[in-house]
């Protein structure tokens, strides 16, 4: 990998994460097609700014700052992403003012080079989930600090991602990550199983370490990746697993006894008790992942009024308000703001990318088509993608519609034996034909 400005590639001590040869942080952004807070990427509908949230969490004051920035410097469109971050779309000429507003709210990285690598996903119920084996947030803070503070890790791709799973009942277990860690207990000891280029819900782990070595494991894996990867090899899936494992200088434990229980089917939607007595969280979905400034400011106000002043965004493109004592009132207010609060609402089961209204690669207006399909009550969880890149879904949905022309899609059913979207079932369907086909098909055939 390229050296830093001093001509030195810093190496980290795996036990502490500290550089063996410290060098100043590089404060320049490298070219990338991925938006960040400091890098505005242009789309058909204007600039895109991605605000990466630590563990998906944001304070009410910060959420209000995002809402104000979107209203003042963009088109007011805010997106909840499938990595539990926020995006502002439609940014105009005042990019620097928007960035300054977000930095003043404390939403930026510790240094410019660290913005791209803040890709660590937790459960939205970290620290409050009754099923959790440990509170992942302190370890996550340590990992994020290391990712941002050490220049060598700034060479990682803006898409390179890590997942830390504490065994919570509410967890996205189907999104692939370059490195995943998942807690389990053996003989009374909490261990972290880990895997590469996969996810704890689908893949077997490669080894395990004691919980207290979790940070050292992350450092060792990332160092090994950077030692081995060529400039073209930007993701863990580009390297042989054996080569990475062979570079680790940590003793690995067997994974006997690891079995990740499935995530609760609908725990990302509704009201559920927390680990803390008499406390609840309330979770809702932003329709097709989009909310406006009024919705975000309204949710922030609810967090202040009924909760602990924080919100958590979820990989289901929704929001979670923790530490609520009056959940019914919060749920009602979220619904009034325009959030989806019930699985009985068909749009709550739809995922759609930006579509041709905002993306030059999309072949159809996927969001408008999703609204039309939802009105037909198809009875399935459906992902509409404007092109094969599948930006809106990091996992394979039970049903995928891949656009082939405006208003027309190829239909796929999820099939573990088939790569990509799954098994192709029909070509060039209209939205009306898709709705009729799905209504006639039992849900159990695709959502098992």
From TrEMBL:
Residues 114-238 form the Nitrite/sulphite reductase 4Fe-4S domain. Pfam families: NIR_SIR, NIR_SIR_ferr. Residues 48-103, 272-326 form the Nitrite/Sulfite reductase ferredoxin-like domain. One of its GO terms (molecular function) is 4 iron, 4 sulfur cluster binding. It comes from the Bacteria. Residues 1-23 are annotated as: Disordered. InterPro entries: Cbl_synth_CobG-like, NIR_SIR_4Fe-4S, NiRdtase/SiRdtase_haem-b_fer, Nit/Sulf_reduc_fer-like_dom_sf, NO2/SO3_Rdtase_4Fe4S_dom, NO2/SO3_Rdtase_4Fe4S_sf. Keywords: 4Fe-4S, Heme, Iron, Iron-sulfur, Metal-binding, Oxidoreductase. Gene3D superfamilies: Sulfite Reductase Hemoprotein, domain 1, Sulfite Reductase Hemoprotein,Domain 2. NCBIfam families: CobG. This is Precorrin-3B synthase. The lineage of its organism: Bacteria, Pseudomonadati, Pseudomonadota, Gammaproteobacteria, Pseudomonadales.
């Amino acid at each position: 990998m390229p050296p830093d400005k001093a001509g030195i590639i810093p190496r980290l001590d795996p036990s502490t994460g500290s550089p063996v040869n410290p060098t100043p942080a590089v404060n320049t952004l490298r070219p990338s097609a991925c938006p960040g807070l400091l890098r505005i990427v242009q789309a058909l509908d204007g600039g895109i700014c991605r605000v990466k949230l630590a563990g998906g969490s944001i304070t009410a004051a910060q959420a209000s700052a995002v809402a104000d920035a979107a209203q003042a410097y963009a088109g007011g469109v805010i997106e909840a992403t499938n990595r539990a971050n926020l995006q502002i779309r439609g940014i105009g000429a005042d990019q620097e003012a928007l960035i300054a507003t977000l930095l003043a709210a404390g939403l930026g990285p510790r240094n410019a080079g660290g913005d791209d690598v803040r890709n660590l996903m937790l459960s939205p119920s970290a620290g409050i989930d009754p099923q959790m084996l440990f509170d992942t947030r302190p370890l996550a803070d340590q990992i994020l600090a290391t990712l941002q503070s050490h220049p060598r890790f700034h060479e990682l791709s803006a898409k390179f991602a890590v997942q830390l799973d504490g065994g919570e009942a509410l967890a996205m277990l189907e999104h692939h990550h370059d490195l995943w860690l998942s807690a389990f207990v053996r003989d009374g000891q909490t261990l972290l199983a880990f895997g590469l280029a996969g996810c704890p819900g689908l893949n077997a782990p490669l080894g395990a370490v004691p919980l207290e070595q979790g940070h050292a494991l992350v450092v060792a894996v990332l160092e090994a990746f950077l030692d081995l990867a060529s400039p073209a090899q930007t993701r863990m899936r580009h390297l042989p697993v054996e080569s990475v494992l062979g570079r680790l200088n940590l003793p690995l434990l067997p994974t006997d006894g690891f079995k990740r229980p499935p995530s609760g089917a609908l725990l990302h939607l509704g009201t559920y008790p927390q680990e803390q007595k008499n406390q609840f969280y309330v979770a809702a979905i932003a329709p097709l992942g989009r909310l406006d400034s009024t919705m975000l400011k309204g949710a922030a106000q609810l967090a202040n009024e009924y909760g602990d002043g924080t919100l958590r965004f979820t990989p289901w493109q929704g929001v979670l308000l923790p530490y609520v004592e009056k959940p019914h009132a919060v749920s009602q207010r979220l619904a009034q703001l325009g959030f989806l609060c019930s699985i009985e609402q068909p749009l709550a089961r739809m995922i759609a990318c930006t579509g041709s209204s905002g993306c030059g690669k999309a072949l159809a207006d996927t969001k408008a088509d999703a609204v039309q399909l939802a009105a037909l009550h198809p009875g399935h969880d459906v992902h509409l993608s404007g092109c094969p890149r599948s930006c809106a879904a990091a996992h394979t949905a039970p049903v995928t519609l891949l656009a082939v022309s405006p208003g027309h899609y190829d239909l796929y059913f999820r099939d573990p034996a088939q790569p990509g979207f799954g098994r192709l079932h029909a070509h060039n369907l209209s939205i009306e034909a898709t709705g009729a086909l799905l209504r006639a098909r039992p849900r159990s055939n695709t959502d098992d």
